[in-house]
Amino acid sequence: MRTPCDARAPPLRTACEVAGLCRLVSAAPAWEDVAEPAPPPALLQQLPFRRLSTSRFFSRIAQNALNLALVLLVLDATGKAFYTSLLVLALVVPMMVAGIIAGVAADAIPRRLIVALGNLARAAVCVAYIVEPGGSGTLYVVAVALAVVAPFVAAAEGSILPSIVTRVELARANAIGQAVGGAAQIVGFAVLTPVVLRVFERADVLFGIVGALFVIAAVEAVRIGPVARTREEPDVFPPPPFDPAPDAAAIGAVPEAIPPQPTEGASWWQAGWRAMRRDPAVFKAAIELTLITMMLIILGGLIPTYIRDVLELPFEIGALVLTPAAIGVIVGLRVAGPLAHHLPHGLLSSVGFAAFTGLLLALAFVNEEATFLAGYGAFSWLDDVNLGDFDGGALLAMVIVLPLGFAYANVSVAAQTVLNDRVPLALQGRVVATQGAMAALAASLPVLGAGALGDWLGVQPVMAILAVSIAAATVVNLRS
């Protein structure tokens, strides 16, 4: 008879049952196999992305400072908007030739090497100017030399980005990249060039500082680390008809997509164009980037005259007045990245373009608007703003350019994210370079025409015509 203690004891298991239980335990997955993987570190904690951003930051500061210095030196020597527009053209036209070659190079040559050598080449141009400054003609030579090198660096940097971040991180990475560019614009335009030229009154000092920044950018590019040329991800080009891409609505793509055509047989200069044309969403995004870039190129030739004739300010003060535009870009980029993932691309770009063109139109007539608003009690204080040459019109310009930069950020990030997300890595360089060449080609004649009209009619009517023209082109692109 079993005792109560024996009744409470568990029944003995056979050797087979014990062995089977051991096998089940040993076959069970380890905790680390079933646990969710740790989230990837933040983008700026990833060394390759951080070093790419650092390289971009220093090179953009240097490039912005140089571009502004060249425009100021030419304007000081000639006093005409046409010659400043001609200088902008000297910065743009070489991109039409070098841009496509740069795209092929970015897809065939190690990209870090291209970025490093390109920045060192620009540093060498700065040293050459210090050694032999020359006259005003030398400024155009410097502009052409910088314009030849810039597409190689830009195409290589644009191709590196999608190969060092995941597709999910692309919108955020593009937003950070644009923010880096906006911060570099503030430092280059509003701080470095005005301060150095005002304090030292010598261009060679500025060229020496800028050359050192290019060298730092080259070193950071080398430190990015190995860069892949392919990614193990599904084909991002649209599928054949009747099988729409699942993310078409998210990016505003056309459901009736054209089946992809091979580009292997295309000429080296045609590959980027064909890659864009075979995907309607990519082509629309490229057109949007072309329009917004063309507008900025044309404005680059008009802004110095706008500051002098409309705001009636010294350029150093005028550059500070326009600084909120870069702040608006940085703020907008904090919002544009998430919006690019949650809103249709067509909606985001349409709102951005509409806001940009409307604000540009308002910027053209700030003095008249300030006078009109001052007639109302709530805005009568605009008549009381008088700090030297700084008046109500200049203050209103500061208010307008802040959302202007915000609108630019939305258009730029939305379009650039589509390009990076849908174009294979093997074609990224050629597509980026082709889009840059499109913008250069589209702006080549308008920038000269705008400069000539600015000297004849004044800057305000030209800026108004520019805003209306870009708005019309945007409507055509969105409806096509």
Secondary structure blueprint with pairings:
Elements: H1 4-8, H2 15-27, H3 31-34, H4 47-78, H5 81-108, H6 111-131, H7 136-164, H8 170-200, H9 203-222, H10 248-251, H11 271-277, H12 280-309, H13 315-321, H14 324-342, H15 345-364, H16 366-374, E1 386-387, E2 390-391, H17 392-422, H18 425-457, H19 459-479
Key descriptive features of the protein:
single chain, 19 helices, Growth Hormone, Chain: A, 1% strand, globular, 76% helix, mainly alpha, two-stranded antiparallel ribbon, 480 residues, 2 strands
Report on the structure:
The chain is mainly α and 480 residues long. It has a single domain, classed as Growth Hormone, Chain: A (Up-down Bundle), CATH 1.20.1250.20. It has helices at 4-8, 15-27, 31-34, 47-78, 81-108, 111-131, 136-164, 170-200, 203-222, 248-251, 271-277, 280-309, 315-321, 324-342, 345-364, 366-374, 392-422, 425-457, 459-479, and strands at 386-387, 390-391. The longest helix is centred in the last third of the chain and has 33 residues, at 425-457. The N and C termini lie far apart (94 Å).
Can you write the helix and strand succession as a string?
HHHHHHHHHHHHHHHHEEHHH
What structural class should be given to the helix and strand makeup? mainly alpha
User: What is the strand content?
Assistant: under 5%
Domain count: 1
Q: In angstroms, what is the radius of gyration?
A: 28 Å
Class, according to the CATH hierarchy? Mainly Alpha
User: The CATH topology is what?
Assistant: Growth Hormone, Chain: A
| Count, helices | 19
> Which stretches are poorly predicted, pLDDT < 50 over at least 5 residues?
28-36, 233-265
C-alpha end-to-end distance: 94 Å
Biggest sheet: strands, sense, closure? Answer: 2 strands, antiparallel
Q: What is the residue-averaged pLDDT?
A: 78
Q: Based on DSSP secondary structure assignment, what is the total number of beta strands?
A: 2
| CATH architecture classification name | Up-down Bundle
Shape: globular
| CATH-defined superfamily | MFS general substrate transporter like domains
Strand order of the largest sheet: 1-2
> How much helicity do the residues have?
over 70%
